[in-house]
Specification:
The chain has 250 residues and is α/β, with parallel strands linked by helices. It is 24% helix and 18% strand. The protein has seven helices and twelve strands. α1 packs across α2 (32-43) and α2 crosses α7. The relative contact order is 0.17.
């Protein structure tokens, strides 16, 4: 049974968790991806191997505390993690960004010219490696025109670059690349032929027109657009009472 009492963040967490139902391995970042992975393990995919900075047993308050590797299979360094992705062993990678373009390129470096930016952002961290080496990447971000732009100010993390075949020409592994984008308005994917972003499903109460109004480039809209299911009562119960009972992130 679905609930009508949920926040946009809780909806995004639930949708991201559902995307991991069949995943074997996933590189998880802090925030929504972390909660989504925990929810997926508890409800849909107990065998999911989550590779990230925080424990699924008890959410940490900071990345430097002991709970970040409590009951982990392995506690290792970032080089080992990225080499695991390079060997093709990490299926999904979760990403965020200040800007995203039609081909799924992400910017977390600067807004404005690189030499004299209007805003300087945190930078790549491991995002370039994740976007370059994981088989499928899922971006999670707020859906606004200023974020969904025709051309990102800086490519921090490569998507499909400028179209079909571009990743391969750049030396990136074939058949890797962007898979889905989860926003507070919709679920998006990519057209197989053009590699451009397309609308997959809208959230409850959100129209196609509202999604288009908040997208700064021409979004592919198929003849049939699905609608995402709202969070179920079971999803919300587990999320609120087991995954993040102290509301550290939700």
């Amino acid at each position: 049974m679905a609930s009508t009492d949920y926040s946009p963040t809780e909806l995004m967490i639930c949708i991201a968790a559902r995307l991991m139902k069949e995943a074997r391995t996933a590189f998880i970042g802090t925030g929504i991806p972390m909660l989504a992975a925990a929810l997926a393990k508890k409800l849909y995919n107990p065998d999911l191997i989550a590779i990230f900075e925080a424990s699924l047993e008890d959410l940490p308050r900071a990345v430097g505390e002991a709970r970040t590797f409590y009951r982990a299979m392995v506690a290792t360094g970032i080089c080992d993690v990225m080499e695991t992705a390079q060997r093709g062993l990490i299926e999904y990678g979760f990403l965020g960004g200040a800007q995203i373009d039609p081909y799924g390129n992400l910017n977390t470096t600067v807004i404005g010219p690189h030499e004299k930016p209007k805003v300087r952002l945190p930078g790549s961290g491991g995002a370039n490696d994740v976007g370059s080496l994981c088989w499928r990447t899922i971006a999670i971000m707020k859906h606004e025109k200023k974020r969904f732009v025709e051309r990102v100010d800086f490519i921090t993390t490569p998507g499909y670059l400028d179209g079909p075949g571009a990743r391969e020409r750049a030396g990136l592994p074939a058949e890797t690349g962007p898979y889905r984008v989860v926003t507070d308005l919709a679920l998006l994917g990519y057209d197989e032929a053009t590699k451009r972003m397309m609308l997959v499903a809208t959230h409850p109460g959100v129209t196609v027109e509202k999604v288009l109004e908040n997208t700064g480039f021409e979004l592919i809209v198929p003849k049939r657009v699905a609608q995402n299911e709202p969070p179920s009562a079971d999803e919300l119960r587990v999320l609120r009472t087991e995954v993040d009972p102290e509301r550290l992130y939700i």
